[in-house]
């Protein structure tokens, strides 16, 4: 995760000069981000080659995690298999619930839709298979769950900076649960985390998103009993 934070600024700089291929416009229906604006495959390094030392390291780390995981780890990983904004309730507080934050639910559903589309395009470019023994229903690099975790953590922490530490701690657990579940390599998770950081920054630059974010932020802070005007 530390490496992801180090490279985020570089990725954002590269984004400014990226020249997206025409095919990037042919995937899905993005809600906030204009098609072709962000092409993750142009920003991320490719996944490790199959016979490389990095691939051997990835495989070894997955094997170590699987050997050491506890029933509690497995239960957490199973729960975190579902991308949902309320995975962050433990960090946000019990009033962060569906009945209190309908605008926020809609905002994050649209943001996750954009994240999933952008990640799927990158996966279709890199074509990395998941670790052995896992259903190969989707490609592995970058991790969509890690992207969701990073993007959500950034956006929530901008809404409620008072809870930033708890939010990012929860996001790290959510992302790393994909390794514990045995469905992603560490480099998948790192690339997904970097992707989510960039996606969050791009979202925050979109006027349509900004308008929805202001309303959702006020809603969340009100639900949590925090001053709405606080930064």
Describe how the helices and strands are arranged.
Layout (H helix, E strand, L loop, with lengths): L1 H16 L35 H16 L2 H9 L9 H4 L9 H25 L17 H16 L4 H17 L5 H19 L2 H17 L8
Helix pairs in contact: 1-8, 3-7, 5-6, 5-9, 6-7, 6-8
What does this structure look like?
By secondary structure, the protein is mainly α. It has one domain (2-15, 56-223): Vanadium-containing Chloroperoxidase, domain 1, CATH 1.20.144. Helices cover 60% and strands 0% of the residues. The protein contains 9 helices and no strands. It has helices at 2-17, 53-68, 71-79, 89-92, 102-126, 144-159, 164-180, 186-204, 207-223. The longest helix has 25 residues, at 102-126. The protein is globular. The model is unreliable at 2-26 (pLDDT under 50).
What's the number of extended β-strand segments? 0
CATH class: Mainly Alpha
Oligomer: single chain
Distance between the termini: 26 Å
CATH architecture: Up-down Bundle
Order of helices and strands: HHHHHHHHH
The stretches of 5 or more residues where confidence is low (pLDDT under 50) are: 2-26
Number of helices: 9
The largest pleated sheet is described as: none
> What proportion of the residues is helical, as a percent range?
55-70%
Q: Characteristics of this structure?
A:
Vanadium-containing Chloroperoxidase, domain 1; about 60% helix; 9 helices; mainly alpha; single chain; about 230 residues
Précis, in short:
The protein is mainly alpha-helical. The protein has helices spanning 2-17, 53-68, 71-79, 89-92, 102-126, 144-159, 164-180, 186-204, 207-223.
């Amino acid at each position: 995760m530390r490496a992801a934070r180090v490279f985020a600024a570089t990725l954002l700089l590269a984004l400014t000069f990226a020249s997206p291929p025409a095919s990037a416009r042919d995937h899905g229906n993005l809600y906030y981000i204009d098609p072709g604006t962000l092409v993750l495959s142009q920003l991320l390094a490719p996944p490790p080659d199959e016979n490389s030392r990095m691939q051997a390291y990835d495989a070894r780390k997955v094997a170590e995690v699987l050997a050491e995981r506890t029933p509690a780890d497995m239960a957490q990983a199973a729960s975190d298999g579902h991308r949902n904004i309320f995975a962050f309730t433990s960090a946000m507080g019990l009033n962060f619930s569906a009945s209190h934050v309908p605008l926020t639910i809609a905002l994050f559903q649209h943001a996750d839709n954009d994240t999933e589309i952008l990640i799927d395009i990158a996966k279709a470019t890199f074509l990395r298979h998941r670790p052995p023994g896992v259903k190969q229903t989707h490609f592995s690099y970058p991790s969509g769950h890690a992207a969701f975790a990073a993007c959500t953590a950034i956006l929530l922490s901008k809404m409620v900076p008072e809870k930033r530490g708890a939010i990012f701690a929860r996001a790290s657990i959510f992302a790393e649960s994909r390794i514990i579940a045995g469905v992603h390599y560490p480099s998948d998770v790192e690339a997904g985390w970097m992707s989510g950081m960039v996606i969050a920054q791009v979202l925050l630059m979109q006027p349509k998103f900004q308008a929805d974010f202001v309303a959702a932020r006020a809603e969340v802070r009100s639900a949590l009993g925090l001053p709405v005007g606080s930064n």
